[in-house]
Amino acid sequence: MTTQVGKPAPIVREISVSWKPEEAYRRFVNEFTNWWPIKTHSIGGPRIKRVVFEAKVGGRIYEEHIDGRRFQWGKVLELDPPRRARFTFHPSRPENTAQTIELLFHPEGSGTRLELIATGWENWGKGAERARRGYQIGWGLVLNLWAGRMTMRMRLINAIGKVVLMMQLIWHGGRVGLIDSAEGEL
């Protein structure tokens, strides 16, 4: 889907949770390392020690491997707890190909509706529309994991993601090849 010729439309995903906005924000931003699916949504997979979201403007988002190597995923642009967070996102890619992710935490009854908006797909370059389609699915899975939901549909999507990961590993000559081909090492 495109909004203009050659400019892919933003991804907009929403999910509602029973947590108040303060708790939803804290769980996403401050507890990022606790819920992010590192085995399937990272560069290092089983070699990851932790994923870090430095909750300050200018803070980095990165994965740290058990051997000490670090790969930057993005940079925090804006934090307005518990209403909003914005950051760039470019795991394993050069910073100039980053998307901007905006998280909006809307009060909804006694809970919160999280709205995720991913823009800047034109920065990706060749293959942007294909990448956007993949991230459309991926962000849906990630948000459901954050919310503590794993429906049958999410299990199927996760299984498909594992197959895609296996194909990437084969293409790059295994996990070490995938890591060595990644950009953004700190």
CATH superfamily: START domain
Mean pLDDT: 90
Spatial gap, N to C terminus? 34 Å
CATH A-level architecture? 2-Layer Sandwich
What do you see in this structure?
- The protein is an alpha+beta fold and 186 residues long.
- It has a single domain (10-181), classed as Alpha-D-Glucose-1,6-Bisphosphate, Chain A, domain 4, CATH 3.30.530.
- 33% of the residues lie in helices and 32% in strands.
- The protein contains five helices and nine strands.
- It has helices spanning 21-30, 32-35, 128-146, 152-172, 175-181; strands at 2-4, 7-8, 11-17, 48-53, 60-65, 70-80, 84-89, 99-108, 111-119.
- The strands form two sheets. A seven-stranded antiparallel β-sheet has the order 3-9-8-7-6-5-4.
- A hairpin with a 4-residue loop joins strand 5 (60-65) and strand 6 (70-80).
- It is globular and about 50 Å long.
- The mean pLDDT is 90.
